[in-house]
């Protein structure tokens, strides 16, 4: 039986000159949320509109345009202000609604 000597290289990561760059761990969530606001929400409202009653005389049309400033206003506070005030960074999203009564021909928009 022969004795085989194995030499193991040891690496030390304790003495690195520069810190390793951290990956952007929430990039996929941010991209998904941006897609939802820019495309997904509008697609969803297009898919479910119009909503009709069982007699099909009343309809509710819901519309969301992500480029319309009236439907997607800017937040009241910046991200930094929300961090300073311990607040949630949020902004309202509005939907344009059109109510149609086919019996009377009445159309109401809001």
Which helices and strands appear, and what pairs or packs with what?
Blueprint: H1 27-48, E1 51-52, E2 58-63, H2 79-85, E3 96-101, E4 106-109
Antiparallel strand pairs: 1-2, 2-3, 3-4
Cα(first) to Cα(last) distance is: 90 Å
Structural class per helix/strand content? Answer: alpha+beta
Could you tell me the radius of gyration in angstroms? 28 Å
Q: What does the main sheet amount to? A: 4 strands, antiparallel
Low-pLDDT segments: none
Q: Tell me the number of helical segments per DSSP (H or I, 4 or more residues long).
A: 2
Mean pLDDT: 86
Helix residue percentage: 25-40%
Beta content: 15-25%
- From the spread of the alpha carbons, the general shape counts as elongated
User: In sequence order, what are the helices and strands, one letter per element?
Assistant: HEEHEE
- Find the count of extended strands (DSSP E, 2+ residues): 4
**Strand order of the biggest β-sheet:** 1-2-3-4
Describe this structure in words.
The mean pLDDT is 86. This protein has a domain at 50-109. The protein is elongated, with a radius of gyration of 28 Å. The protein has two helices and four strands. The longest helix has 22 residues, at 27-48. It is of the alpha+beta class and 110 residues long. The protein has a four-stranded antiparallel beta sheet with strand order 1-2-3-4.
Question: What distinguishing features does this structure have?
Answer:
16% strand; 4-stranded antiparallel β-sheet; 2 helices; elongated; alpha+beta; 110 residues
In short:
By secondary structure, the protein is of the alpha+beta class. It is built from 2 helices and 4 strands.
């Amino acid at each position: 039986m022969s004795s085989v000597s194995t030499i193991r290289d040891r690496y030390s990561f304790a003495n690195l000159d520069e810190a390793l760059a951290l990956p952007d761990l929430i990039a996929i969530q941010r991209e998904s949320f941006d897609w939802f606001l820019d495309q997904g929400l509008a697609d969803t409202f297009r898919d479910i509109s119009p909503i009709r009653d069982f007699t099909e005389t009343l309809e509710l049309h819901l519309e969301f345009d992500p480029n319309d400033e009236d439907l997607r206003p800017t937040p009241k506070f910046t991200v930094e202000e929300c961090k300073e005030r311990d607040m949630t960074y949020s902004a309202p999203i509005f939907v344009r609604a059109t109510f149609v009564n086919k019996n009377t021909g009445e159309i109401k928009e809001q």
